[in-house]
């Protein structure tokens, strides 16, 4: 059942991405006077077809992992003289550039549209409070103690953990100083500096936040007191903030949990803050038995999950969607650059097996997660197709640019040779990502 979910989620994502991409090419070609012979979703043998009044054959092919549009082209078809003006290779170079660019741009617009749809009614995110900080971590050495709200990374404002992760990931392989700005509880923001030297260079699937010693946390604020619990009997109320437990200051909820669980049937001296004033309270956690038979303490309180809305309404959501698309575009370009120069390991590239697993997990988490994944994959497809590799859209753009500059078409012999090189490059890339997938599968 889980395998079916993964495969269905992958195929659904691919079909959406391919359909939008090819439709971009199709619309541009039609508008600019190039005849489209076939619009196919899928590759291989055709299982369904329908010819439109305009003469375009719309088809569904048997292999649902791609698609294409076949345009009239004198390099691949016998074209009557009266139709040569409708051939892709015979129209003006600028028209070829627009047609070739339209597919990737359609994917870019799809990403914006999906992020906009997801955020239209508001996006609630967890406020990025730092959790418990281990003493042997880079975060502790930088001065973080837990409970701080991270507000910027290298001067870039952040509002959620995903923003922090994305901006820290940009520093993989770097030498220098990573600067986080954080607000300790009740204090003004300050900078925390992390010295880097070839940081995680060549590391496969780097856990960037874990390497820094950062983990999400919750403030020690009560959202709910269980009725008739030890906390209820002690007089704790919703909204109370733990200041200290047994004389030890606490900054994050986990610190409170650790002390409570370690103190079954033991009276605890608690200092709480309520309405700006502090009050001492005594409470005795009740005994609870874990599955392994160990006894732990339970007070009967739940943490307050502090969230914020970062986008709401049509215009705010559009700004959010555009910004998010730009951020992931920059992240992807930076990652590709770092792989090329060796600062990031190529094992981070994912193939169809890994994407299927991610897509299936996203689908199980709900429609919003799934749509955001499709948006991120659409950005990747936008960038990959613009690479100046023959057989990709970027290769056609390069040919058209050469023709614009030299006033001469690139010879058919050169194009054929370049296409073979391009196919070899893509073949190597496919082998690499499938190898990465199988390595993850075996290793997992």
Structural account:
This protein is an alpha+beta fold and 444 residues long. It contains twelve helices and 18 strands. The protein has helices at 2-31, 93-119, 138-142, 161-169, 208-212, 230-234, 253-261, 314-341, 352-365, 367-385, 393-406, 412-443, and strands at 36-51, 57-71, 124-126, 129-130, 149-153, 156-157, 176-183, 190-196, 216-217, 222-225, 241-245, 248-249, 268-274, 277-283, 286-289, 295-298, 301-303, 307-309. The strands form seven sheets. Strands 6-5-7-8 form a four-stranded antiparallel beta sheet. The longest helix has 32 residues, at 412-443. The protein starts with a helix and ends with a helix. The relative contact order is 0.12.
Question: Helix coverage percent of residues?
Answer: 40-55%
Binned strand content:
15-25%
- How many helical elements? 12
Count the E strands: 18
Q: Poorly predicted ranges (pLDDT <50, ≥5 residues)?
A: none
Q: What sort of overall outline do the alpha carbons produce when their principal axes are compared? A: elongated
Strand order of the largest sheet: 6-5-7-8
| Strand and helix order | HEEHEEHEEHEEHEEHEEHEEEEEEHHHHH
Q: How does the helix and strand content classify structurally?
A: alpha+beta
Mean pLDDT: 89
Largest sheet properties: 4 strands, antiparallel
